[in-house]
Structure formats: structure tokens, C-alpha cells
Amino acid sequence: MTNYKLWANEMWQKCQPKVTKNAERIGGDYPYTTENGKYKQARHISWWTNSFWCGMLWLMYKETKDERFKAWANEYENQLNTLFESQERLDHDVGFMWLHSSVNNYEITGNETSKNYALLAASTLAARYNIRAGYIRAWNGRDGEDAEMRKGWAIIDCMMNIPLLYWATKQTNDNRFKYIGIAFADKVLENFIRPDGSVCHIVEFNPENGDFVKSYGGQGYCEGSSWSRGQAWAINGFAQSYNEIGDIRYLDAAKRVANYFMNACSEDPVPRCDFRQPVDAVAYDSSAAAIAASGIIDIALACEGAEREMYLASAVRLLKALDERCCPWDDPEDEAIVNFGMEHFNNGQKALIYGDYYFLEAILKLKNLNF
Ligand code: GLY
Which residues have any ligand 1 atom within 6 Å of their CB? Predict the structure, then answer.
């Protein structure tokens, strides 16, 4: 088996000083994207991406034991938790937001206050489950018509939020949380994954009976297209569901979407923003590669022998393409680890904090492989 740890260690030697320098400037804030090479904060503390920086601080703390990372992560978490005083903007992304902050804090330091906040977030997520229709409602929408329209919407990204429910069951010994996660994963299996292994971004269900109404292109090119980050969320999310629940259908789903993703990247390992965008569109999403690579490493670890080697090699191919083409290592003033992300089809190339997070996470998974 090829030894990828050496290469991952080289990457870590590049990431460590950069993230440390960034942290000395950013501290416990919540950066989102860069402007002239400097990370700037998201508009509002409730923005779904805010905890990825905190997640990076915890990755750095685990790896270096530098206490400053823990202090900055705590500083951010204290700001985040004020959201429970209003609740108004919270939606299904409480999973992303509290997994990377309070769950990490509790798992690493045993902080009981963090555990309580993470359980509050899990309860908020569980409460979004529509018991008649079998899905977790994604967004609230603005008032009136917009909120009404979104009542039946579920999105593939939510596969990354349900691990908070699995975690809550382990803490409370109460299976209700986990059962909601499983019910949602099963609904996604049936309704989001197409026979060729591609996935939809948004599916609208009838909120009264759970019938499929229609799918939407969401952040991808159009209805029926294949938004690359959505494919990556599916790979990573189903791999996590398999790790937590052990249902082989989830591993098979993760593999099927991963195989589709790798095939779509066979010519160019830096993913297009949408695998079905017009051929002349110049739109890439580096974050999709980082998210997929981290999930594909998990798939590899669930396999053995030649299959494991194939998935590891595929993940490393994606990461190496980011290293060579998207990481501004030569510019010490550019705070991004990975450039060339895209929020949604055709809205401009930019660094995205979650691209950085999953790149660092994937590198550390490889660096710390125990074989
Ligand atoms: N909607 C979450 C994302 O942009 O991936």
C-alpha cells in the first residue's frame, strides 16, 4: 500500500504555520471568505459556515496542544451560544455549527457546558423533523409565502448535520435522536440519489404525507444538474452515517456517489462547480474536492485491500490537485489555504472557510493513518 503519510506530513508543514499565523490575527472570530487575501467575518453570527474556523482551531489544538487554539475556540463558542437567546435564525445547519464547536469542546476537554449547548442544538435539529413526511426541514425562509414554500424542502447538505443526532443519542442513551437521523438518511437514499450516482441538491416533499413533489437545482446550474459540492456532502455524509450506524446501505451509497464523483473528475481533478454546467462555463469549486476527499478517506478506511488503496489514491489525487493548483503557498500574505471555491453556480471564485477546513481535516486523517 502506498505510503501517503509522508506527503500528508509535507502538507501539514505548510498548513501549520499558515493557520497559526491566521489564528493570531483572527482569534475567536468567524471568518468566511477572503478579500484581498485577508479573511473577513461573515455578516451574522447565525451564518451556517461560522463554526468551520472553530473546527480548524480544534484540529490545530488536537495536533499541537497549543493552548491558544483552545482559548480562541472557546471565545468563538461563547458568541455562538448567544444564538439560543433568540433562536429566530436557527435552521438545520445547527448540525454544522455545534458539531464543530461545542461537540468538539466536550469531546476534547470534557466541558459540560458545551455538552449542554450541543444537546440543545441537537434538540433544535430533531424538532425540525416532520413526523408525517419523514424529512428534516432545511430552511425557514422569510415570512409569508417564502416560508410557506420552503416547508417541504430538504437538502442533501443535511446529511452533514445528522451526525449531531447520532452524537446526542450516545450522550443521552436516548435513541429518539438517532432514529430521526436514520429516518432522514433513508429518505435521502430513496429520493435524492439518482441511478447514475449523482444527487439532487433540494427535494420538495409534500409536508402532509412525504410524497416527492419535485427537485430543484439549488446552488447548482439548474434543475436536474449535479452541483459538485452537493455530491461531496452526500459522499461525506453517508460515510459518516455508515461509521455511526453501521448500515451497509449507507456505505454503498457513499461509494456510489464517490464513484460518480471520481468519474466526473477523471479529466480534471479540480471539480467544476456543477458537473452538468455548460462546457464553456468557467466555474470551479475547490471546496467540493476537499469535502469529497475527506469523505473518500473514510470510505477507504471502511474497505480493505485493493479497494481501500483505490479510494485512498482517489482522495489523494483530489488533494494533490488542490495543493498544486488552488493553494496559494507562494503568497505568504494570502490567508486562504485553498482558493477557487464557489458558493453557488457562477457567483465568482473565492476562498471558502469550509474548503480550508476539509482540506486540513483530510490532510490530518492521512497524516495520522495507523497503518
Ligand atoms: N448550502 C450549503 C453549501 O453552500 O454548501
Answer: 157, 219, 229, 343
